[in-house]
Amino acid sequence: MFHRLLTSLGFVALLSSPLVAADGVKITEQADKLRIEINGEHFTDYCFQGAPHVYFYPLIGPGAASMTRNWPMKEVEGEEKDHPHHRSLWYSHGLVNGVDFWSETPKAGKIVHDKFLEVKSGKDSGVIRSANKWIAPDGSVTMTDERTFRVFTRANHERLFDFEVTLKAGDRDVVLGDTKEGSMAIRVNESMRGVLAKEKGEKKAKVGKGRIALSSGVTSSGSGDEKAWGKRAAWCDYSGPVDGKTVGVAIFDHPSNPKHPTWWHVREYGLFAANPFGVHDFEKQPKGAGDITIPAGKSVTFKYRFYLHAGDEIAGKVADRYQDYVAGK
């Protein structure tokens, strides 16, 4: 009787609708960002206004762990305030036809949102396809890009998403220049770092509990990042404690990418980036050795997968997940 009464009043549909909405990936457009939820839980926002480049913030991992630094988007006591251009998770590069699109200075270029090509929620995945303009300080468009962000629903609070960017030249060649300042990047949570900030009066920074691991078997944990920085590998993982639990984030370099396996611009202070361009810095080769030229009217595509997991690279079975990526799973 009670169920029939609720049905006749339309209450059953109202009560069940939140469960339907929470199932899968939900993407909601707001004034300056897209909010992405997975099974009703906030995962990240795609921020496309209000900064010199587009970026994702926050980035929520297993067990609701905050995977990236808050600053400069949000003031949090105890966080370092270095490198204001390290905005959580982003793609940019420090030398494009001589223009710096990596840093945020008056002489730097900007990556400006142009339009959305597709925004789609779904039970198994959600997709954001967007177009952007790389605008030099003089107002000219150096190049354009199209980006595809595809996030998947996963069991056990794992978080998995693919990021693909196609860089397009206009009516002239585009040279993606040889510099370590780039390009597919994330700035991890301060507590995940391998080296912590210096306290007042201290001569040396404290050793943190962060761990860097490459697919080649190289690892670095509190002993300097020289073993991992500037080295080539198919994947790199950065793990460490957040709120008392160890979590990690891995970036996978797709085998189809130019110069695969890529070099890793990864630091114990928290920067973590895949950069196929910085050969001069990484391997002491002549300047320009890492250049990639996109002929006028042509394009080049880079594909990456991000895997957010519990534990370090061993507990998270990062090597196995990379093989899934290679196999197209």
Describe this structure in words.
The chain has 329 residues and is mainly β. The protein has a single domain (2-73, 82-198, 205-326), classed as Distorted Sandwich (Beta-galactosidase, Chain A, domain 5). Helices cover 10% and strands 39% of the residues. The chain contains four helices and 19 strands. It has a nine-stranded antiparallel β-sheet with strand order 6-7-8-9-19-15-14-12-13, covered by helices on one side. It has a four-stranded antiparallel β-sheet with strand order 1-2-3-4, with no helix packed on it. The protein is globular and about 50 Å long. Residues 1-21 have low confidence and may be disordered.
Q: Nearest-angstrom radius of gyration?
A: 21 Å
> Fraction of residues in helices?
10-25%
Intertermini distance: 48 Å
Query: The CATH topology is what?
Result: Beta-galactosidase, Chain A, domain 5
| Number of discrete helical segments | 4
Q: Tell me about the biggest sheet?
A: 9 strands, antiparallel
Q: Low-confidence spans: pLDDT under 50, at least 5 residues?
A: 1-21
Which sequence of SSEs, written as H and E, runs from N to C? HHEEEEEEEEEEEEEEEEEHEEH
User: How many independent structural domains?
Assistant: 1
Strand order of the largest sheet: 6-7-8-9-19-15-14-12-13
Structural class: mainly beta
- Identify the overall geometry: globular
CATH class: Mainly Beta
At CATH level 2, the architecture is Distorted Sandwich
How many β-strands, per DSSP?
19
Mean pLDDT, nearest integer? 91
Beta-strand content: 35-45%
